[in-house]
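---------- Forwarded message ----------

FYI, see the GAF domain-containing protein record below. Original note from H. follows.
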Amino acid sequence: MVDPVQENNYESLVEEIYQMSHYDFVGIALQNSDALGQIKWRYVRGNTSQRYQRIVLRNGLGIAGLVLRTGQPFYDNDLNRKPQDFMYTPITVVEKLTSAAAIPLLSADHQQVTGVLLAGYRHGENVSHETISNLRYYLRRA
């Protein structure tokens, strides 16, 4: 379970990124402490519906699962290219994202990946290494 201070920080971080940048969607997915390996989107802004709340991923599946498993940033500018991938990237389908970037959230001791910060676009804007750097900048300030 996320402690209340960290929870408030995550909520504020998502709000700040959404308000101060031009992303269409910003969200944080966290591993459930009570259900090992399950990942849920907990804090979001710019969502088009509440369907994100029903997404439950396993480690390694979806963008969040991939970033959690590898501990590496992710970005893709053509999320709609392969219909067969839609079941593996539910947040992009639910939120109609065409491009997105995601970075890992680390535990306080930097030993473990505990979550994922994702930002994306719906209308064809591109993401890049610069987007990853931008997300890291906001995370360092939080």
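H. also flagged this: The radius of gyration is 14 Å.
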